[in-house]
Amino acid sequence: MEIENGKELRIAVVSPQCPFGQNWQTEEMIERLSQLVSEVVTQFGFDLERVTLTGFSMGGDGAWALGIAHPEQFKAVVPVASWYAKTENICNLMDISVWVFQSTKDEVVASRFAKDLVRTLELCGGNVKMTLFFDADHTQTSILVYGRDDLYTWLIQVAK
User: Would you tell me how many other CB atoms lie within 10 Å of the CB of residue 31?
Assistant: First the structure.
């Protein structure tokens, strides 16, 4: 939405859409996403050390799942309004910068999932931070997050 509204970013953006009836958390979809990342990086000559990952809602689940399964592919992971709840293997992300966004007023996703994941990653010694909104619904959360200039500044900084 930010790009469509004319925001200029010094980053490349790839936004895969999950096939109908699927989700990003299955092993098959995780591997398909990992392959897509590899192909895009190779085809366009991107720096492997500067790849970051974000997603909203089900895409946030995919960000967690893909980041945990293939941490070697990413410098940062930014899940937004995700209901991902699998804390096992979360320590795979301990060497990656993670910024989690969630709202306590989200009518679709309870904030406890994000809080549990952040707490578990902190126990691993992970580099994680969380921004919790108190007045945004599910959709508003994505608008607030992806409209933040400091998010893009942070993504560029951690990928240096």
Answer: 13
Architecture of domain 45-158: 3-Layer(aba) Sandwich (3.40)
Closest-CA residue to 31 (of 89, 86, 73): 73
Sign of CA dihedral 123, 64, 128, 139: negative
Q: DSSP 3-state assignment of 95? A: coil
Domain ranges across the chain: 45-158
Q: Where are the alpha helices (DSSP H) in 26-137?
A: 27-44, 58-69, 111-123
27-84: per-residue pLDDT in tens? 999 999 999 999 999 999 988 889 999 999 999 999 999 999 999 999 999 999 999 9
CB atoms within 10 A of CB 52: 21
Say if CB 117 and CB 64 are below 8 A apart: yes
Asked if 33 and 66 count as a contact pair (C-beta separation under 8 A), the reply is yes
pLDDT digits (tens, 9 = 90+) for 104-140: 999 999 999 999 999 999 999 999 999 999 999 999 9
Q: Is the dihedral of CA 90, 94, 96, 101 positive or negative?
A: positive
Q: In which residue are the tokens 């930010």 written?
A: 2
CA angle in degrees (0–180, nearest 5) for 89-72-100: 60
